[in-house]
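Predict the 3D structure for this chain.
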Amino acid sequence: MWGLENSGRNTATVKTVAARVSRHNYGICVSWPFESAKGHLLVDRYRGTRGEWRASNQMSWLLRKGERIEEGRVLRQQLAHSIQVGFLDVGMRYFTQTVQYCPDDNAPRRKERSE
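Done. Predicted structure below.
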């Protein structure tokens, strides 16, 4: 069927998307050096491989809800995994990281369920 969009009278311009707006918060769960002044909870506290106190279940947000996402933008997060290996261990170690999302307007500091 031949409609008005093909009749030559169509004066609509071609629309392109230059940026998008994030509908959710996106981040990864990490552990930080434990500091009660930053609101870290004792239930999250554990000893790291070097004997230091660390806070688990902390979120590092890569993208916040409502933030503009430009075309070609790269999201980066530097990660360091401290592991214990045996004296004669050889080879490569592979790690994976799950990206978490939160639909809340204010993303939490800790990894916890949204209500």
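Residues 71 and 91 are 38 Å apart (CA to CA).
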